[in-house]
Specification:
The protein is mainly alpha-helical and 221 residues long. Helix content is 68%, strand content 0%. It contains eight helices and no strands. α1 packs antiparallel against α4, α2 packs antiparallel against α5 and α6 packs across α7. It is globular, with a radius of gyration of 18 Å.
Length: 221
């Protein structure tokens, strides 16, 4: 998921300027931005409420995930500003401004990237210690979130987002799908969920087959 969120924000940053030259495409781009931000916020809430306490309990080390909590706090304000602006644009309360969106992204992107990179070694170390105990819990959490019909974490939104921001060619595709994700669910996502909002997913860095593609509004240079 960290790679998906990083790729998603990179795609937004690369396209946020040139999209302004095509007003008819801005609503779809804003929808993509909104989904990216809401899923990231939900990801953090799930980690803090379910994942981190579980890991600390399993490892028997209270406060073990303190650095991850602090990593979230480092760019909470910037992410909140991003979402507030996107919601206002979507509601028609503010006009889309590439200058403003780009500035907001650049205000928190470095802290976000640092967190996304630093958290992985800690989680991998825990994975080696907790083994199946952690994998089972991770699968339970993913299943719960993907089945949630009340938020944008539902299958129609979350799974296509993961698909359009996950490069199937990266490290021979070993990270292209969540753990224990059945092949039939992959096909349903690719051929049923993905087309439902294809106008949003076109702003993602890969196509429905997970292959890298040119971004429609990527800035030159």
């Amino acid at each position: 998921m960290h790679n998906a969120f990083t790729r998603g924000l990179t795609s937004i940053h690369l396209q946020c300027v040139n999209i302004e030259t095509s007003p008819k495409d801005i609503p779809d781009f804003v929808a993509f931005c909104e989904i990216w931000g809401e899923l990231l916020q939900d990801h953090h809430e799930t980690e803090e409420a379910d994942v981190f306490p579980f890991l600390e309990e399993g490892a028997g080390v209270p406060g073990l995930m303190k650095s991850s909590f602090e990593g979230h706090r480092a760019f909470d304000a910037g992410l909140a500003e991003f979402m507030t602006y996107i919601w206002k644009v979507e509601a028609g309360e503010e006009k889309y401004s590439s200058h403003k969106l780009k500035a907001v992204i650049e205000s928190f992107a470095p802290a976000m990237h640092e967190h996304m990179v630093n958290e992985i070694p800690a989680l991998l170390a825990l994975d080696s210690r907790l083994g199946e105990y952690w994998k089972k819990k991770a699968a339970e959490i993913f299943a719960k979130k993907s089945a949630d019909p009340t938020t944008k974490t539902c299958k129609v939104i979350m799974l296509p987002f993961v698909l359009t921001c996950t490069d199937a060619t990266f490290e021979d595709g070993v990270h292209q799908w969540p753990p224990n994700f059945p092949w039939i669910a992959k096909m349903i996502t690719r051929y049923y969920y993905f087309p439902q909002h294809g106008n949003w997913w076109r702003f993602g860095p890969v196509d429905a087959a997970g292959q890298p593609r040119e971004l429609p509004f990527a800035k030159a240079g």
